[in-house]
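2024-03-11 09:14:02 INFO worker-7 job=invfold-0412 stage=load source=structure_tokens
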């Protein structure tokens, strides 16, 4: 199974979760406010309903999501704005903090590099924007690639990204799912 297929299927699962209009805790309905562990569990449940996965998807501590014999995946969420519509503080740190043991996407890549498993490894970022974007996520994704490759020495594959429009949340109106394979060595 190719990474682009996984990313498209994750995006489709997120749209399904969004369309259910089930709110997370006290937040407004929609997929945008969900916390990472809750969202990854919901994604795993949805993927297991797809024929291509045949129940092979489970959640774990490391990696966040395992597709047996295929992919070990770590997830990060990026929300420039909170449920209340106000710009969030330090929202970009989830991607860029370049230290081992940190909970950023770069920290997850370093963790994946050390993970012993037969599956290929990837980091996926789920991001939310307004339509049209008030803060575009593309520059953050570009910065992540530069810091990961040039500063942290992480060999990343090419970015695969999909966008889904029309989410139900008034702030998290569109979804971006971007993913990179964490390679054994640079190509």
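2024-03-11 09:14:09 INFO worker-7 stage=emit residues=187
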């Amino acid at each position: 199974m190719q990474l682009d297929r996984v990313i498209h299927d994750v995006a489709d699962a997120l749209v399904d979760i969004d369309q259910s209009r089930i709110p997370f805790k006290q937040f407004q309905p929609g997929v945008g406010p969900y916390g990472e562990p809750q969202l990854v569990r919901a994604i795993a449940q949805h993927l297991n309903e797809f024929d291509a996965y045949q129940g092979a998807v489970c959640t774990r501590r490391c990696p966040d999501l395992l597709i047996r014999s295929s992919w070990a995946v770590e997830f990060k969420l990026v929300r420039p704005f909170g449920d209340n519509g106000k710009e969030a503080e330090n929202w970009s740190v989830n991607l860029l903090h370049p230290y081992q043991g940190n909970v950023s996407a770069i920290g997850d890549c370093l963790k994946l590099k050390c993970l012993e498993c037969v599956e290929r490894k990837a980091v996926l970022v789920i991001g939310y924007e307004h339509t049209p974007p008030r803060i575009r996520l593309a520059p953050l994704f570009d910065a992540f690639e530069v810091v990961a490759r040039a500063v942290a020495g992480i060999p990343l594959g090419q970015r695969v990204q999909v966008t889904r429009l029309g989410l139900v949340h008034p702030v998290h109106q569109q979804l971006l799912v971007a993913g990179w394979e964490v390679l054994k060595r640079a190509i």
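2024-03-11 09:14:09 INFO worker-7 stage=report msg="Strands lie at 57-59, 65-67, 71-78, 120-129, 160-164, 174-182."
2024-03-11 09:14:10 INFO worker-7 job finished
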